[in-house]
């Protein structure tokens, strides 16, 4: 299996520099890092990739079994590390990828030796005193909502997103393309993401960790950021002015500055 | 009529730009980059039941969305707005002032910051209750169809597996392997089958191809397999067994016919194998001698399940060490690729190239080549059984 093609791996930046892996969350693909990753290319060797099932990864490599838990996604990260023989990398994970990075760094701290967690949440669903912000019914509603917004997939989108070099005109029609994938994969990724519970894993992290917490994040409220900070030994928490769940897009400068200050 | 048109052209019509905005035939919202609502038109207020002062400067677009849609907005649409400056036909539910939901479609564009104005998102809102309801029904119908399809495929696979023994018997002194590859994606029950079992003084092999696919073909395939197992009790010559199968098929009044090869191998006192076979409308078996010569075994016979009177012949050959005998269905030679049929010549070459492998290796090589010849999507089922007498 060619991992570089499978995960659409893109390496840029300073050859021989410290590796810095940027990892996208549920919804879109590596384009999420478009405004952030280039700022690190002078000093670091930047590695971007799409999880299997997202972006321009090879959808044929998707396995409902493997990606039923975040461990399968963590394996994607470690596969990329192994393929490129990366050690001592900075792992920057957005949204659910933050927990994927936590799992990968617990398994191979030699490869991932620093974690930057952007808008992380170890559990999205409320549980007793723990406030994740959502209920199980909310997540089912999300899955329905995905269905309603992927209407055109089967007939039109599949050939486009899966690459159709013979018909370049199809590319012109792409709307909402960065966030398109097979709806069945999107639905499973939604369930895997929002039904996971990684609270017990946080204490096992041994590498230096930075948590970036946005204001007004509908997916990861401030108390969740504090929870992650409390649970990961020696971690740092930076509260950002950026609003929403995607500071890497809405406030790239602030995101870059916070990461650079930590590194 | 002409007079009224003139009135409009000359500006006597009552619309002002403000009217056009406020009473536009779609809801209209403007937000800051973070989603905070800064302008809203009257159509939008009527649609949702809010007062202007409830929304402007107080509520973010997220707050108007149902929770599932809110997650979708954060994970899909907000990133898209940042990456490609516009999203279209987003299907969401808005939460109205009275707690009800109204299904809508949203189009949004990101307006970049200018010297006089900060970044804004402009959103058009179209009520789509009937359309969304219809879409939901279509979605449900599709889910049901997918579920039925999944069950049908599972049924087809299970049924198909019953036509092919999970493993062939071990025969002392002979290496045996069978391989089956369904047509296309394997979603339909094919008509190919094979079976191998012990008879009184040796082993019997049956391999056949029922015309057509689907449930009716499956019934006939099953009937054929069990008839062949039971038939040797009456007359054990291969031609007699195929004749019995012909009778049974005719009695069944099915319009399906089949082709089959039936063979028996017996071992004499000096451990030499003797093969006797009969062909019922089926291609002959291929014999590869230890020296690499290729010949066909069998005398053409009548297709089974069509005529009362069939002409079937028994042909016997002695097998030597190093000999390979290959039984196959027409999915092998009639596999159609870009350059025509796979054909007997290609089959002969594939078998010669693979002849040093064991029986499983030879069968695998042949099936792989036929499938590759058809770019991975064989048009017909392929069944292959290989007997090899090791050196």
What would you say this structure looks like, in words?
Chain A: One of its GO terms (molecular function) is hydrolase activity. Chain A: Belongs to the AB hydrolase superfamily. Chain A: Keywords: Hydrolase. Chain A: Pfam families: Abhydrolase_6 (PF12697). Chain A: Residues 21-258 form the AB hydrolase-1 domain. The complex is a heterodimer of chains A (263) and B (391). With 263 residues, chain A is of the alpha/beta class. Chain A has one domain (3-124, 197-262): Rossmann fold (3-Layer(aba) Sandwich). Helix content of chain A is 36%, strand content 17%. Chain A is built from ten helices and seven strands. In chain A, helix 2 crosses helix 3 and helix 4 runs antiparallel to helix 7 (183-194). Chain B folds into two domains: 2-127, PAS domain (Beta-Lactamase); 165-388, Phosphatase 2c, domain 1, CATH 3.60.40. Chain B has helices at residues 2-9, 17-22, 42-48, 52-55, 67-84, 129-161, 214-230, 238-251, 343-354, 359-373; strands at residues 27-32, 37-40, 86-95, 101-111, 120-127, 175-181, 192-199, 202-210, 258-267, 273-280, 285-288, 294-297, 315-319, 324-328, 336-337, 340-341, 382-388. Chain B has a five-stranded antiparallel β-sheet. Chain B is elongated. The N and C termini of chain B lie far apart (101 Å). The interface between A and B is large, with 38 and 34 residues.
